[in-house]
Design brief:
This protein is of the alpha/beta class and 413 residues long. 38% of the residues lie in helices and 27% in strands. It contains 17 helices and 15 strands. The chain has a 7-stranded mixed sheet with strand order 9-8-10-11-7-12-15, sandwiched between helices. A 6-stranded antiparallel sheet has the order 3-2-1-6-5-4, with helices on one face. The protein has a two-stranded antiparallel sheet with strand order 13-14. Strand 1 and strand 2 form a beta hairpin. Helix 9 runs antiparallel to helix 15 and helix 10 packs antiparallel against helix 14. The radius of gyration is 23 Å and the shape is globular. The two termini are 27 Å apart.
Length: 413
């Protein structure tokens, strides 16, 4: 953890009544950035203000602020974000850019909401790392990477990324857009929010106050002569219908869906009243993903599994996966992090994706047309060679990248 940035926050707090709120917020953002945090949570309690940081997907306590500076802290964040400082009973969303002392400027998305003990604030740090990502860095296996590359070479159709909030879906789509982004094609996106700016791509921000929704924005995009469209999320029937229509009429369309896995995405489109034959005709590929924490390389050790741990492993990992990797696991010691200063004693540092890639081929199309359920679609996809997220995670645990506990945490959360 960056001690210098933490010291600056603590120095401000020691000033008591003379605390500089401007300096405190700046130091807090610096500390969060240097700690690799994705979010800052400022939560009011009865007698104090609790600050937590989300690092590698897990919330950690960072600071306790005095209750008497609560209103000043929230007001400062509102001023930075251009929000109403006299409104205390309604939720407000905003955004601002902050200069980091030893780093690039960081865009920060702000959400403020009234709670029992007063207004809270959640600040999301949108660090522009999109251009650094490749399929390998994201954790795609060679086989899955080739399936995605094959799908994005098609001139039209849909590519869907699925998973819960915070599972890296948008980052995966940005990585695909980066590959597709050449001067010969027109790419337009509609997002909420725009997380990273990409040169050469027209990016549109959803704005409910002006009536610019995913559906209305997508209609406008279709009149702009694009080759490739990215829709931040398919949330409703209207957006789904326009997206499918766009994919049918010669556009390559990328989007995300909130479903647990790749197979569930197809019945989710049935629920949005999209005709099965349209889904079968337009969806090229569905990606399911989660983010798991990487074992800290500084305190990584190999540890042989005990009899009890092997028994637990056989209870939680599907038997077909254990059978498939039986030779690899016999006598195998799995890696773990013991905890050190570098990883703040967590044993983990950084994250990597675990994936499943469902190719829509003839056998999957046939199940879609007869409206088969997700479990049947999943079984047929596995027979066609789909590696499930659990199996991909298990392979990464065998390779010493993450732990079995971490795979189970994210898949069964």
């Amino acid at each position: 953890m960056p001690k210098l940035a933490k010291t600056k926050v603590e120095e401000e707090l020691k000033k008591g009544t003379d605390v500089s709120i401007i300096g405190l917020i700046d130091s807090l953002i610096d500390y969060a950035y240097n700690s690799r945090a994705s979010d800052i949570h400022i939560d009011p309690e009865e007698k104090r203000l609790r600050v937590r940081l989300r690092i590698d997907g897990i919330l950690n306590d960072a600071f306790i602020l005095p209750k008497d500076i609560h209103s000043e802290v929230i007001t400062r964040i509102k001023v930075l974000s251009g929000l109403r400082t006299d409104e205390h009973q309604a939720a407000q969303d905003g955004r601002f850019r902050n200069e980091i002392k030893e780093g690039p400027p960081v865009d920060i998305r702000v959400s403020i909401a009234p709670t029992f003990y007063g207004e809270n604030a959640v600040l999301r740090l949108l660090v522009e790392k999109a251009e650094k990502f490749t399929f390998e860095i994201l954790g795609f296996s060679e086989e899955d990477k080739n399936k995605v590359l094959k799908a994005i070479k098609k001139p039209y159709g849909m590519i869907l990324a699925t998973g819960p909030t915070g599972s890296g879906k948008t980052t995966t789509l940005y990585t695909i857009l980066k590959i597709l982004n050449t001067k010969e094609v027109s790419i337009i996106t509609i997002e909420d929010p725009i997380e990273y700016a990409i040169e050469g791509i027209d990016q549109i921000q959803v704005n409910s106050r002006t009536g610019l929704t995913f559906a209305s924005g997508l209609r406008s995009i279709l009149r702009q002569d694009p080759n490739i469209i990215m829709v931040g999320e398919i949330r409703d029937e209207e957006t789904a219908r326009i997206a499918v229509n766009a994919a049918l009429t010669g556009h390559l369309l990328l989007s995300t869906l909130h479903t647990n896995d790749a197979a569930t995405a197809l019945p989710r489109l049935f629920d949005m009243h999209i005709e099965p034959f349209l889904i079968a005709s337009t969806v090229n590929i569905v990606l399911g993903q989660r983010l798991v924490r990487r074992i800290c390389s500084n305190c990584k050790v190999n540890k042989a599994l005990s009899i009890d741990e092997l028994k637990t492993l056989s209870e939680v990992v599907p038997p077909e996966i254990l059978t498939k990797y039986d030779k690899a696991t016999k006598g195998k010691s799995f890696a773990k992090g013991t905890g050190c200063e570098v990883c703040n004693s967590s044993g983990y540092q950084g994250r990597i994706g675990i994936h499943e890639v469902l190719e829509v081929n003839d056998s999957i199309r046939e199940t879609i047309i007869r409206k088969a359920d997700a479990s049947e679609i999943r079984e047929i996809a596995k027979k066609n060679g789909m590696i499930t997220m659990t199996e991909d995670g298990f392979k990464k645990a065998l390779a010493g990248i993450t732990t079995i506990e971490e795979i189970l945490r994210v898949i069964h959360e």
